[in-house]
């Protein structure tokens, strides 16, 4: 039996970030994960400015940024935005491309040697007010003051302690990811491109093209079922399916070639119930999933871990015991649930905005189109301050409420 203060189960993004933060803060921590190196896995493939600002609060941005490709420093540094087939804005780049395994492995490299890594699966868990017991697939056991459950969507350990996973929206969205290059020699004219759908029946949220190292990565977000024949078609001939879905895309990209494999993965939205328990706290996807199209899962991970490791764990360890009312302080933290609620609301809003017919949704789409066009025009005319003002959250809210009232 090994004793520690914190046992982290799961060394994905959430668990590795927590291990790096706690290890650097000198908290006795053990990280448990069966993979010595995080394997290739289709998940988040870029960080935006909002995610980066939360990452900065963890103190770990310096460990991650060198492994990313910033679109603002590639080609002309401009991220193009197209809607309904029209190029409406060329804004400064602001995304940091990185494959998920590279992201997690960069985070793991930031974990100090004082944090032991157990290369095993946690297979047994008992929790209580004082000490928690974790048994591992390699036959060893760990006793900890606190268990941080960061094991992503798994359910087996949750079942053991009576935490339920409730799916609130099965197959909420599907992500397809692949590399592209121009069919003819040369490079794309843009550093990055986000392309919003031309028609609602296409059941598409958007296509985003962004650099990762020397490749142009494509993430296509759609709202379909896994048995939709369209998925079979895009696997067989991705280039043809892309242009069939977005005929005007070719005007911006020219002819393209899809390079390497295409990965396709659905995402369910789910939440946890019965998680307010002594001795155990859930973070990242172990607590609740997010919609890949909404693009806030990584922000949710960083937000959870930053609050937990900067605020709550230091407070909890100032007194003995780990009763449920201590743990509840994390779930009741307005910064934590505020982010979670906004992420969940945006997942549904984006889906409706992308696929719902009817006057209200059409009006909102057109208002967005006009607003984004205005931003682009202002930027072209050199009125950067006006462009930024129109792009601000306040104005986005105003446009939304106008659509809601209609
Ligand atoms: C297809 C897809 C695309 C996405 N795209 C985006 C995006 O564009 N932007 C965005 O912000 N978010 C995106 N997300 C969401 C984001 O990637 C996730 O929210 C985030 O990766 C969750 O990290 P995590 O550490 O909680 O879970 P994971 O990364 O799943 O880590 C879980 C870890 O736990 C380990 N584990 C499991 N069981 C055990 C056990 N019993 N014992 C020990 N270890 C265990 C696993 O090996 C793994 O290492 C996407 C998600 C998906 C599925």
Determine the mean pLDDT: 93
Bound molecules: flavin-adenine dinucleotide
- Number of E-type strands: 17
Counted up, domains total: 3
Q: What's the shape?
A: elongated
Radius of gyration (Å): 22 Å
Structural class: alpha/beta
Helical percentage: 25-40%
Q: What ranges have pLDDT less than 50 throughout 5 or more consecutive residues?
A: none
By CATH, the superfamily of the largest domain comes out as FAD/NAD(P)-binding domain
> Per DSSP, what share of the residues sits in E-state strands of 2 or more residues?
25-35%
Quickly give the CATH architecture of the largest domain: 3-Layer(bba) Sandwich
In CATH, what is the class of the largest domain? Alpha Beta
Distance between the termini: 63 Å
What fold name stands as the CATH topology of the largest domain?
FAD/NAD(P)-binding domain
**How would you characterize the largest beta sheet?**
7 strands, mixed
